[in-house]
From TrEMBL:
One of its GO terms (molecular function) is FMN binding. Keywords: Oxidoreductase. Gene3D superfamilies: Aldolase class I (3.20.20.70). This is Alkene reductase. Residues 9-342 form the NADH:flavin oxidoreductase/NADH oxidase N-terminal domain. GO terms for cellular component: cytosol. Belongs to the NADH:flavin oxidoreductase/NADH oxidase family.
Amino acid sequence: MTDNSLRTDLFSPTKLGEIELSNRITMAPLTRSRTGEEGIPNELNVTYYVQRVSAGLIISEATNISSQGRGYAMTPGIWTEDQVAGWKKVTDAIHVAGGKIVVQLWHVGRFSHVDLQPNREAPVAPSVIKTTGNVYTHRGIEKSSMPRALRTDEIPDIIEQYRHAAECAKRAGFDGVEIHSANNYLLEQFLRDSTNHRTDQYGGSIENRARLVLEVVKAVTSVWGGGRVGIRLSPVTIEVGNTPLDSNVMATYGYLIQQLNKFKLAYLHFVEGTTGRNRDVPEDIDLDALRSLFDGAYIGNNNYDFEMAISRRAEGKVDAVAFGRPFISNPDLVERLRYGIELVDVNNDAYFGNGAKGYTDWLKANY
Ligand SMILES: Cc1cc2nc3c(=O)[nH]c(=O)nc-3n(C[C@H](O)[C@H](O)[C@H](O)COP(=O)(O)O)c2cc1C
């Protein structure tokens, strides 16, 4: 039988900061919308994550840090005690099975709908610029609502939401947290000048636009230390809904990454290209050069196949690779890659909110 571990060290143990991994194949964060309205992880979620435990690291689905941070129905949260207890069942089961799991901390910013917000208030954003994107409410797909701009004196509360969620994550037994600063959600809305037109200390210059994410990193690392905190960025992702690139991607993200070095984070995680769509990068942008500004470990993601993962690892371009969609339909992805077993394709119908169907009913291969 083929054993691809002889061709690559992707199947060998490594460390991302203080997090020890049994291999370099990680599971990318995947929203699956199988959690109830209260955002409390359930037994089905436990089964789903445990099925994927052979990933060197599981990065959980994006998890709301507050009721204000929520933009999609049936997604989990990490701000109430019941949510902590629900997640504890997941992390305990993962640890018993020998795996590692971090939680992705999420605030959607303007990608929300008044139906999902406390008291039907407007979603919050750096500036009053509406996304043309869709969100999922209890009624199905809806256009996102017009946001309101956060006042300067409300920013400390946003940072506190992240800090509180980080504390909850610790009590929930996670191995660390990933700060979701990608895919055009709140932190990236502040970072990009296309979505941040503020005139206070959180808008204008690169230093000002990077301020919120750096203050969030400071708050989260005050709970966890740097070595168990990762961050996800998507410098060139043009997501659905009116989120153009920053006018100077290299300067803005370069500044941010250099500042992040101060926190000695566990890892930097890039979506290379436009999330889930393609690996295209504008000519004047060099993601490998940006990544090399970071002193710590690096996870690469987006449209990787096994051969690309092997070659980028062999070139020293990545420390680990995150696979997203392949983990949906191949719970035993690590073993399949290792033994050269054909992968099962997934189609979009399985992605969101259909109970066990398309979620926990993918079969393992024989090996
Ligand atoms: C169903 C689905 C849900 C996703 N949910 C998240 C998420 O919660 N957080 C996140 O940062 N990215 C999310 N993504 C993006 C993936 O993490 C990943 O970047 C993307 O699928 C590209 O990787 P792949 O080609 O290996 O699938 C999602 C993608 C899909 C298909």
